[in-house]
Amino acid sequence: MLFLQHKLLSKEECPKTVVTSCKDCIRTGPFCAWCKKLNFTKQGEPDATRCDTTEALRSRGCENDDIVSPASSYTKLSDRPLSRGSGQNEDPVQLQPQAVRLNLRPGKPVSLRFRFRRVEDYPVDLYYLMDLSYSMKDDLENVKSLGKDLMKALGQITKRARIGFGSFVDKVALPFTNTNPAKVQKPCPEDERVCQPAFGYQHVLSLTDQAEEFNQIVSMQSISGNLDSPEGGLDAIMQAAVCGNKIGWGDSTRLLVFATDDGFHMAGDGKLAAILEPNDGQCHLDKSIYSKSSEMDYPSVGQLAQKLAENNIQPIFAVTQNVAPVYQLKEMIPKSEVGVLSKNSDNVVRLIETAYKVNLSSNVIVTHENLPEDIKVTYTSNCENGGVPGPRGVCNNVGIGKEVEFVVTVTADKCTKEQSFQIGPLGFREKMNITVVTECECVCRDPLNKNDPACGGQGQVTCGTCVCNKDFVGQRCECRMGDKNERDLREACRFNNGSVCSNLGDCVCGLCQCHAGEDGRNIYGRFCECDDRSCPLHHNRLCGGNGKCDCGKCLCHQGYDGEACDCKKSDEACRKGTSVCSGRGNCTCNICHCLPGYKRPFCEECPGCPSPCGKIACVECLGFNSGPLKENCNSMCSKVKHKVVEALTDKKPCRWKRSDNCWMIYSVKELDGIDNYDVTIQKKLECPKPPDLAAIIGGSFAGVALIGLLLLLILKGIIHMKDLKEFRRFENEKKKAKWTNADNPLFKTATTTVQNPNFSGD
After folding, report:
1. Which end is more exposed in the chain, N or C (fewer Cβ atoms within 10 Å of the end residue's Cβ)?
2. Please, what sign has the CA dihedral across residues 484, 486, 489, 495?
3. What does pTM read for this prediction?
4. By C-alpha distance, which of 626, 624, 640 is closest to 684?
């Protein structure tokens, strides 16, 4: 146990009040101490003088060993060292310590150191939530081929990345959506051929590591529409956050990318459509559709922030420039980022990568959950500007493998019962559990002697004062009740220096004789301070009709318990079969109080817990006698029952790729209790077929031959076309030519004609 120093106030004081015991003293103030020295007070001096500051008691002769003053301290219950390797380890440790017990003196703070270091290759789950209103038509086309790019970008961050997809528009109710039946079926413009019916939110694809599956499923999506500009995005984010078992969130860094080009409706807007029931923050996915969209109002931003924090989800608002200021919600959602989309969302991968690497993953914000009302917590850190105490611890630019340290200061305002709360970095499932116990009792270690001589043989010494036996009073138990005078006897009938017999009785020989109540109630008690009516009511019945009222306290009948006997001692409603609360909770008042994460009524489901498919090492060693647990499989996997079958009948079995690229196929069922599982393993591994070399070589030769033949045919065709073109041109020129009847001057005919000049035709 480590005792820590605290800064003293400028002046330590102990208030002067009515104090009769050590317990009263230490509850008076943080600097009050009690002197348990037996003869510290003089005869007739009140015991209140034993209560003062430590320095004042020392000055009056009280030794250090006789001063009772509980201090605040803490004990580490779990202190596993931080992991230095890869996040692929089965259980990486990123914060230290993991569990602490605080012993707090009210008003006296205690400080403890809290260390955090991000491991490399920590799993990342990314759920893409897209607005499918008609204005996002161009964006949808780009998103349809986004899977490979997203997985490639996430692959630079971790080798264990998964992506999922969901979409939203708005509530199918006026004035948000046209409720004409034809318009509900086709809310898009008339000339739009592909349009899906109006809807609020639908979960399309659970988280998967298959980029092709993402592209295939998202490519089947089509645009829809609504009437007004703000969309129902908060409904969608709420369902994606609380429906963890359906979305498939794992033990990982959880990112939710919210893509839209418009603002959002918030709590109260549902009144416009006569939707008055507040959002209950519960999962209502029926066949992947938000079934309460038209019955419940939108959630508030504060309600959404709470659910995101509870489920360790970090939103990235990928929005257009015109609405970016609307989504600046860091004050309410500290682990959120806003990125500006281009007009057709072609920059979304770069936007997500920047938001995660530069801001979300590098900024560590430590805060608390489930903080009890009377406990206060402040933080400082060894980071820049971390020396000023604040309600959160913040460190920026924290890279992978870099260790940061926070100092957590916890103070209790008053005495309380044992309580617990958690401290941890936002966006991570790992938390440090802190159990708080207030130091409000004195531990004086007095001998157990009910007839101590220091008390006249009629009492026991407790922290320096006498607790007298029956019929004896006084500082040293020196007075017997029968030896008192009338005044003393009358004073004996006063309770806490109040009225005699509470004004409800007569004092006779130092004892109260109580009157009868005017309304028929029975008045009784040492000072007539009790009656049989001043008890809690349940369903307007005294002690719920299941008990008897005794001096302000209900004495319950058999089978009932509680302050008002309103708690039935039964586990009938906690049973399912022979199991009570599935072995993961306690049945109190016929209601299961489950372990953290598990849900009522029977503590069967744990939406935020890691998938049981993660029992990979046990499956490999139990089913195939291989893997890292091969040597000590029986001891490490003692809580895992298994059987090997030829083929599985489960519709969605677990699949895991081994180091030899073969897939293990198995199903996991969680049994009653903690970490108890029943595993069914398919005997045959699914291994990829080796490449067919003959087919590859033959295909290559055939391809080369085919390409050569094709080139020859193309060349022949070109030559033929060229010749045909020349021939046609010649024919056209020939038709245009014009020939004359002139003789060839070089040609001489074979006939010669001679004319006789003397010949006359006369």
Report:
1. C
2. negative
3. 0.53
4. 624
Amino acid identity, position 628 = P
The distance between the two most distant Cα atoms of the chain, rounded to a whole number of Å, is 210
| Tokens read off for 234 | 């908060």
The DSSP code sequence of 287-346 is TTEETTTTTBPPPPHHHHHHHHHHTTEEEEEEE-GGGGGGG--TTT-SS-EEEE--TT-T
Check if the beta carbon of residue 523 is closer than 8 Å to that of residue 517: yes
Q: What is the DSSP letter of 357?
A: I
CA–CA distance, 196 with 221 (Å, rounded to integer): 8
**47-62 b/e (C-beta count within 10 Å ≥ 16 → b):** bbebbbbbebbbeeeb
Q: Are 560 and 553 in contact (CB under 8 A)?
A: no
Q: Which of 558, 642, 135, 569 is nearest to 345 (CA)?
A: 135
* Contacting residues for 338 by C-beta, under 8 A, at least 6 apart: 316, 317, 319, 324, 327, 328
DSSP sequence for 615-633:
-HHHHHHHHHS-STTSTTH
The phi and psi torsions of 676 (rounded to 5 degrees) equal -105, 125
Tell me which long-range contacts 464-473 makes (C-beta under 8 A, separation of at least 24).
Answer: 464/22, 464/34, 464/35, 464/36, 464/37, 464/38, 464/40, 464/50, 464/66, 465/21, 465/22, 465/47, 465/50
User: Contact at 8 Å (CB) between 265 and 176?
Assistant: yes
pLDDT at 758 over 80: no
Order the strands of the 33-35 sheet from edge to edge: 51-52, 33-35, 67-68
Per the CB < 8 A criterion, the answer to whether 468 and 459 are in contact is yes
Q: Over 80: is that where the pLDDT of 313 sits?
A: yes
| Distance in angstroms (rounded) separating the CA atoms of residues 214 and 197 | 22
Locate 93 and state its tokens.
């440790």
The helix/strand/coil state of 663 is strand
Alpha-carbon distance values, 172 to 166, 182, 237, 278, 568 (Å): 17, 13, 17, 17, 44
189 φ, ψ (degrees, to nearest 5): -60, 155
The torsion of the CA quartet 617, 598, 250, 206, rounded to 10 degrees, works out to: 120
Cβ neighbours of residue 161 closer than 8 Å, sequence gap 6 or more: 123, 124, 125, 126, 151, 154, 155, 209
| C-alpha R_g of the chain | 43
What integer pLDDT is reported at residue 744 of this predicted model? 64
- Residues 658 and 627: their CA atoms lie apart, in Å, by 9
Structure tokens at 51: 């209560």
> What dihedral do alpha carbons 177, 179, 182, 184 form, nearest 10°?
50
- Residue 553: burial class (beta carbons within 10 Å; 0-12, 13-18, 19+): middle
Return the ∠ at Cα 105 (arms to 102 and 110), rounded to 5°. Answer: 50
Q: Which of 201, 226, 221, 205 is nearest to 290 (CA)?
A: 201
pLDDT beyond 60 at 8 = no
Burial class (CB in 10 A: 0-12, 13-18, 19+), 240: buried
DSSP conformation letters of 363-403 = -EEEEEES--TTEEEEEEESSTT--S-BSSEEE-S--TT-E
Q: Phi first, then psi: what are they for 152, rounded to 5°?
A: -65, -45
Give per-residue pLDDT as tens, 266-277: 999 999 999 999
**Contact 77/101 with Cβ under 8 angstroms?**
yes
Angle at which helix 211-219 crosses helix 147-155, to 10 degrees, equals 150
105, 416 Cβ separation under 8 angstroms: no
pLDDT tens for 57-69 read 888 888 988 999 9
Helices marked H in 12-51:
22-26
